[in-house]
Specification:
- This protein is of the alpha/beta class and about 350 residues long.
- The protein is built from 8 helices and 19 strands.
- The chain has a 12-stranded mixed sheet with strand order 1-5-4-6-7-8-9-10-14-13-12-11.
- Helix 2 packs across helix 3.
- The longest helix has 15 residues.
- The N and C termini lie far apart (about 50 Å).
Length: about 350
């Protein structure tokens, strides 16, 4: 299905599938007299909730992304994300604002399986990209969000030998920032720092966590629980969530930083976590998705960690790591399941 927002009058649309009907419902809501739309959070850091967002702020967010990527009227885009969440809704809003030709594909692990022509813009989750590597050359501008891009996925993308004209970015944002407020390039050059959009300011609180001020999309300064390293007024590196920091023997350990290191060597999903320990306070453990493997254990223990206490005290294998509906590791559910099984 294709919606040409450059000339809506020429569209003869038939919303047949359940997903297409959801798109229709959102379009009706968008073009209604209401000044706000309802958005559902992913629930990755708590209980999912519904909140209202002003349409004009969504338009402002769309403008920032489209300008950053250089998208222009008549370009093509692909929607393959659920429209219940801000990520899917914003793909439609960007298409409306920039008058793009929007292809509709059912959200799945292989959303571009039937794609046979170039498109200018697409947004996918890391799991979708993992299952779409052979089609990436058809996407001129790809943004990846919903979860962190693993080192193994970055490696697989590099192995595809894509053209310099294929640009791939990792996003930083959340529902409250209306999808994302900055991008980090993965291809053709790999960057370590996110670059925030125009009219977005960043700073640190006294914990070292990121504060965001983006008046075009949120009148209030947004306080995050994300520990970051700020390079300059427009660039920052994500270190980890303060909620996930492990205090082991008085030392603070950032699990996301260790996961980035380990995933350069492991093909499996891997999550570091702290479990209660009488002497250390929290004991650092590593949870690996898949069958128990002495080879994987040896690989982990041979990794040159910066600190000796970064090496896990225990390695646990689990058949499947719980995830949220949009593909993020659900650390809360994982923590519960690990404690129950111990």
């Amino acid at each position: 299905m294709l919606i040409d927002f450059n000339n809506l009058n020429t569209n003869k649309l038939s919303f047949d599938t359940e997903f297409e009907k959801k798109v229709k419902i959102f379009l009706e809501e968008w073009f209604s007299e209401k000044t706000e739309v309802n958005v559902q959070t992913s629930g990755s850091t708590g209980v999912p909730k519904i909140f209202e967002i002003e349409k004009k702020k969504m338009i402002n967010s769309a403008v920032m992304t489209c300008n950053f990527l250089g998208l222009k009227e008549g370009d093509s885009a692909l929607l393959c994300l659920p429209v219940e969440y801000i990520s899917g809704k914003m793909m439609i809003v960007r298409s409306i604002e920039r008058k793009l030709k929007l292809k509709i594909a059912e959200p799945s692990l292989k959303p571009v399986e039937n794609l046979d022509e170039e498109i200018d813009f697409c947004a996918m989750t890391p799991l979708q990209v993992e299952n779409s590597l052979e089609k990436l050359h058809l996407i001129k501008n790809l943004i990846i969000g919903g979860a962190a891009v693993s080192e193994s996925l970055k490696s697989k993308i590099l192995q595809m030998n894509l053209s310099p004209s294929n640009r791939i970015f990792e996003t930083y944002g959340m529902s409250e920032t209306l999808s994302h407020i900055g991008l980090k390039q993965l291809m053709p050059e790999q960057e370590d720092y996110f670059t925030v959009f125009e009219n977005v300011s960043i700073s640190l609180d006294d914990r070292g966590c990121l504060k965001i001020f983006a008046p075009n999309i949120n009148a209030d300064e947004l306080q995050t629980n994300d520990l970051v390293d700020i390079r300059n007024e427009k660039q920052f590196k994500f270190l980890g969530r303060i909620d996930n920091v492990i205090n082991s023997g008085g030392a603070k350990i950032f699990p996301e930083t260790l996961e980035t290191l380990v995933k350069k060597e492991l093909p499996n999903e891997a999550v570091f976590m702290g479990l209660p320990d009488e002497s250390l306070g929290q004991k650092l453990i590593l949870i690996i998705e898949g069958n128990k493997s002495d080879e994987l254990i040896k690989t982990v223990m041979d990794i040159p960690f910066d600190k000796n206490f970064h090496k896990p005290k225990e390695i646990i294998f689990i058949s499947e790591i719980p995830r949220t509906p949009n593909g993020k590791v659900n650390r809360m559910e994982l923590y519960k399941s690990i404690n129950i099984n111990l």
